[in-house]
Amino acid sequence: MQQTLAPAARVERSVIARFFSAENRYLPPLFITLILLISQISFGLLESLSRTALAIAASVVCEIALAWLMYRKVPHLASAYISGISVGILLRSPAFWPYALCSVLAIMSKYVIRWRGRHLWNPSNFAISAMLLLVPEYVATLSVQWGNTIWPMLIVWALGVLIVLRVKRFHITATYVVSFIALSFIRSLITGHPFLAEVAPITGPMYQLFIFFMITDPRTTVKARWAQCLVAFLVALVEMALRLVENVHAPYYALAIVGPIANAIEIAITSKRRVAVSEGLAAA
């Protein structure tokens, strides 16, 4: 009996392992959709389902169009879906056009704002930051909290942890969270606000997307593990400075400032090393 069951058990474990592996690009979209459903059912998170659908559709159509125009191929749409649904969740506007425009900006940034083959900004972060700077009278960002109910947050955190563990980015999330809490204590000493009031924002739905998807995006984070932790700390530090001057969009702007600078430095250093190696080989 054991010999009969063992192969089936191995197959079952293999299927589960493949489902949660880094190669399964459908897993993050599935999890972010679950986060959306939990949040919408519990607290009515979205401005409207139609606006979120528009953001997703604009993102997917723009991705297909640009990929075909530039590379003559149909791309994998998981990234476009995540960008679109993130815009639909995080953006707030009474109009429809900001959702479509923000999604298009997010996708275009992947194809236009590149340096030596790499992205500099997280697409959703770039687009939302640009909208907040360019048309602040038309848009705002998600500010809904979980209320006094803890179970939705626990479910979202469990799903988020699974995602970042899968792509080996949990240390980025952990560094940012620890830094945010520690800096919240410093902010409370400076402002005189209660510590719990300063640390409370990180428990909101917006921060769940920020810490599990934006700052951990494999395509827009630096490569070295120690550098990833340093960047996460610097994002929290710049965010603290922005919060001290009462900037309500501090996390978006902090990542939009620190992320591309870190990527540009790493790209420049890597390029110099490659040139030095090439010159050394040529001399030899």
Structural overview:
This protein is mainly α and about 280 residues long. The chain has one domain. About 75% of the residues lie in helices and about 5% in strands. It is built from 12 helices and 4 strands; from the N terminus they run H-H-H-H-E-H-E-E-H-E-H-H-H-H-H-H. It has helices at about 1-20, 25-45, 50-70, 80-90, 95-110, 125-135, 150-165, 170-190, 195-200, 205-215, 225-245, 250-284; strands spanning about 90, 115, 120, 140. It has a two-stranded antiparallel ribbon. Strands 2-3 form a two-stranded antiparallel ribbon. The model has no long low-confidence stretch (mean pLDDT about 85).
Primary descriptors:
284 residues; two-stranded antiparallel ribbon; mainly alpha; single chain; 4 strands; 3% strand
